[in-house]
Amino acid sequence: MMENDTIVAIATANGIGSIAIIRLSGDDALLIAKKLSKKENFKNRYAILTNIYDSGGTLIDESIVIYFQGPHSFTAEDVVEIQCHGGYIVAQSVLKACLEAGARLANAGEFSKRAFFNGRIDLSEAEAIAQLIEAKSEDAAKILASQMKGSLKEFIEEVRDEIIHILAYSEVTIDYAEEDLPEDLVEQIRAKLDGLYKLLKKTLIASESRAGLMQGFRVAIVGKPNVGKSSLLNALLNYNRAIVSDIAGTTRDTIEEQVKIGTHLIRIVDTAGIREAEDAIEKIGIERSLEAIKQSDIVIALFDGSREADEEDREILALLKAHAEDKAKIIIKNKVDLPQKFTMEGLPFDMELNSKEDVSGLITALQEIMDANNLSDEIMLISERQITAVKETMQNIEESYEPLEMQELEIFSFHLNEAVKAMASITRPFENDEMLDKMFGSFCLGK
After folding, report:
1. CATH number of 128-210+380-427
2. For the whole prediction, is pTM greater than 0.85?
3. For the segment 153-192, what is each residue's pLDDT rounded down to a tens digit?
4. Per the CATH hierarchy, to which homologous superfamily does domain 7-120 belong?
5. What is the biggest distance separating any 2 CA atoms in the chain, rounded to whole angstroms?
6. I want to staple 292 with a disulfide (CB 3.0 to 4.6 A). Which of 220, 324, 328, 363 is the partner?
7. Does residue 60 sit in helix, strand or coil?
């Protein structure tokens, strides 16, 4: 159950800006706005320019105050937003005045949590709101905006209703257990379950394979020492982030930077050269490089065209086969401006370039790989919690097949009931305060 006290938080990012927004929600939100402004007449959904005073009557700022009368607000409670001048001091002073007037500082995600408990949003919409704030691509933002308006909820409800429809056949027939189900009815139920299972599997595969769309694609640059990895990173970033030298092992740890390519914000990881380590620190860097390959969505493998292939190059190729077989890869022959000596059987290059000059071809290739992950209108699961729930649903559908064939309808119904619960947990789970506290606690303060 939600408390009835009035909460307050700064809803904009910390720092200097043109405006800051302080948000109040609860029964006393309007009363506190009246205390701070010394005004009585606030009209629902109208912006009012007014002075804001502290508890001692000292002027803090001239601000815009908007009153949203419940239940027609984000939290379905009375909500007031105070838009003051941005900066460290003014917003904190307004916040302090709200607290002195009777409000309580909101916990992280508490506004969204109240919206959930008051029936304003479900969990899928709440998660979409949280992830929209941190969207790493325009495509992700479009998907999340659609889910914020209930597209995933509609999909979940359709699947859930279909399972309940199948369950109804079983529940009614249990009363006539001495009679066998008609064979064609068993086939019809099996066909419906098959269709649901395939739909959920398609959604699950699409969601897991395109996680980079939501979280931001991770791109690992790998290769032996001195093949030009750091030069390539600097070229992609368009500034000298990594130290470049002819000394093997200059990059002794992984370097991570973000850059926008096309409509995507990606994280590029420049790894330490992979070779037999000469000291403990370098060995740790190489181990992190291997971990970067495993965690990446795209691997850029760099080979030096000006040097003959050696055992270290063959080791890179082996690592790609062992750890990046199912990942998008771009295999590059670098330093093509120098006399060419590199040859290796079984290593087809996707492109040749000079990483110190033009890398536009690589940027285009990266954009094409990421754009191929655009989901268009497909439904996508956006959190590990949602993915786990769908996996549980699929498992229960699988486990229902045998009792259906054996006409053990009580067991069959049990598995379908568990499937319904798992699907329902994506939008509005059964009481689990600990899970809800953990989920909403990961939200931004003021959201």
Report:
1. 1.20.120.430
2. no
3. 888 889 988 898 888 777 666 655 555 556 677 788 889 9
4. Probable tRNA modification gtpase trme; domain 1 (3.30.1360.120)
5. 85
6. 220
7. strand
